[in-house]
Amino acid sequence: MKNLLSKLQKKKSKTGQENSTRHQLTSNIKHVLPYLTIGETVIFPNTIAPIFISNQSDIKAFESSMEKSKNIVIGYPIDKKKSKSLNNTYKTAVLCHILQVLKLPDGTVRILVEGVNKVKLSTITFNEFYIAECKIINNPIPIDTKTKSLIEVIKKIFTEYSSIHGKIPEEVVTTIDRSDTPDKILGNICFVTPLPYAVKIKYFLENNNLINLENIAVTLKSEIEILRLQQNLHGRVKKNLEKTQRDYFLNEQIKEINKELGKDEDPSGSDQLLKQIEKLELNVKDKEKLTKDANRLNKLQPMSPEAGILRTYLETVVELPWNNKSEDLVSLKKAKSILNDEHYNMVKAKDRILDFIAVRQFDVEKKSPVLCLVGPPGTGKTSLGKSVANSLGREFGRISLGGVRDEAEIRGHRKTYIGALPGKIIQAIKKTGVKNPVILLDEIDKIAAEYKGDPAAALLEVLDPEQNHTFTDHYLEIPFDLSDVLFIATANSLNPIPAPLLDRMEVLEIQGYTEIEKTEIAKRFIIPKQLKTIGLTDAQISFTDDSLLKIIRKFTRESGVRNLNRNVASVLRKIARLKLEEFEEGDEPFKAEDIKFEVTDENLNDLLGDDKIPDEDIKDSTVPGLSVGLAWTQLGGTVLPLEIVLSKGKGRIILTGQLGDVMKESAQIAISYVKSNCELFGIDPDFDKDVDIHIHAPEGAIKKDGPSAGITMTSALISAIKQTCINKKTAMTGEITLTGQLLPIGGLKEKVLAAARNGSTDVLIPLANKKDIKDIPKEITDKITFHTHSRVDEAIFSLFPKGTFNKNS
Ligand SMILES: Nc1ncnc2c1ncn2[C@@H]1O[C@H](COP(=O)(O)OP(=O)(O)OP(=O)(O)O)[C@@H](O)[C@H]1O
């Protein structure tokens, strides 16, 4: 049809003059012509289009036209379903000339018409067929350059449209390309594009060519976009459909083959998973999601990587204890006896834990804070956490947070990653098999933030009672309720813990042990445990108190009992080996019961080798410029000797030995304090002229910081200036101010324990810390003389030998 059209268009353009005169009608007079309406095609003047008529009255109208001028008026209904009355017809119609007629066998007539002019309808009457009275609308608008260029633009857009469309015949493209009037271009485009009738009519009724051309350009552009979108979608749908179909058929085939071979009928495992999902007590939405995933798994090829990922995911999800809870033991008495059985002393800590357990029992909303056990290594924080689980009758899980840098380690990786896993929290819960375990977040102070996200931020959600009932692990994709989990954190120091995280925790300090406490822990817990691991009893190997004290003093230097534990284990291994070595071939079979050994302070070196710690850590021999401070580090309390030398120089202050910023400030304060009190201490005010002051803290590998070294710096500086020694058995701690006050410090017990370990006999502390002495075990305070001062000058006078400061001393 469109082929014929273009031929006719060509023919017409050759004989245009003759034809136009043939059916030219005069304007301004009324014409009475046969009339019919069409409802889909809109014929513009100067365009050719076929119409089909089957209605008897329309056929009569056509026959009447053929008998006369071959002219016919074609009108456009406002509502296609209603009558052809004037009211239901647009007043502008088109006068057409009939070019060709073809009667089809079914009685339908196909007429090829050419639009001649737009006409204004005035009446429509009916007598066997419709007759219209109309006037020619004569508005020959001149074609200006703007219109011409718009026509060119539209032609280009149409070429693009036809190339994307792909099915528009070449002849039509050529016809449009040859269209040189707005009517022709509009008419032809409306004829070949699937524009709605309402849009075509809008163009037909609009007499302003420029508006019409601009609108058709926009319409064509949007048609192009629609086509592109359709093609894109079509491509994707096709691809998807092909893959799904292929997978489905392959899956079905595999099932068939397996059936014949008598193998598993559920190769993807989806049926089994569906049954398991059905049993989970989840909310409807989450269950639907899992069911959908299991159904998808069923359609995938069982051996495909995608199926592998999905199966592992679903298996992980169904194995989680969504509603599996253990019963809590509610007896506080029992809890107390379990805590006492498993840990020596720790009275304060156990007491706080029992309070905490009691409060949890009444805490229906589960909003009690998380417990954070803080203290030096090896003081039993981890094992105390385990005891809390035992005393509550709950399962226990431990997550080591040391070195965790990536948020995904807490919250999991999205399952699409290769080798993706849930985060540590969900893994720990899965391991315990219940949703209300005690989970120990070990070394919470060792997490580190990195570019991959801040694990502390993820932990905030885990520990927040307001949020943790909908904790979403990236791998799981559905929320898991953590509100029943009892979290306990451990840390060596509170400083590195981000403030918002610390805010969610209740801090419980676990302190270092005295030698006597360590000996007791060794006798009651460490030795029996270690003996058990090698299958012996205390009837076979025993330790004298002196041997244990020797291990503590000469082989360990720690606040906790970790190294003590290690050394006891080494002793036992050594004894077992020595006994086996005594055994010779041919002897009676070796029996463990035959071992009899007592570890004493005399034979200890045979088993453990030479002492690791020299006899007296702090030697009696003293030098000017040396002062023994006490510091609190992550490893507990420690002695911190400080050395100061003055040498010829340019007044520089040199600090070495990994001193932190606060320590550096303490050094500045000490120098300023001494300078401003020269007279008081009998020091030359120009003592720092032409000299460099070098301050050094030995054991440079350990980072030291904090303000409590103020008094140590000051005393070492005065000692260096005055070339007078300070008693090395006196250890000291205290922050100083420029005006000479001695301010209180923290961690006194740990510091004094360290001083005692190192053989100090005297400890100088700020007066404000006097009240803390009562927390230090008596066996330590009995051995140490405390000197308390509120002012730096008093402290300095007490540290140096009489006569050092002349009249002031
Ligand atoms: N008071 C105590 N009574 C009995 N055993 C103890 C006591 N304190 C520590 N231990 C034992 O010492 C060993 C080390 O303790 P644990 O691992 O719990 O230390 P920690 O404080 O968690 O150390 P870290 O800070 O390095 O994690 C354990 O075997 C523990 O049972």
UniProtKB/TrEMBL annotation:
Gene3D superfamilies in alphabetical order? 1.10.8.60, 1.20.5.5270, 1.20.58.1480, 3.30.230.10, LON domain-like, P-loop containing nucleotide triphosphate hydrolases
Q: Where is this region: Disordered?
A: 1-23
Induction per UniProt is:
By heat shock.
Assigned EC number: 3.4.21.53
Q: Which reaction does it catalyse?
A: Hydrolysis of proteins in presence of ATP
InterPro entries, sorted: AAA+_ATPase (IPR003593), ATPase_AAA_core (IPR003959), Lon_bac (IPR027543), Lon_bac/euk-typ (IPR004815), Lon_lid (IPR054594), Lon_proteolytic (IPR008269), Lon_Prtase (IPR027065), Lon_prtase_N (IPR003111)
Q: How does it assemble?
A: Homohexamer. Organized in a ring with a central cavity.
The protein's name: Lon protease
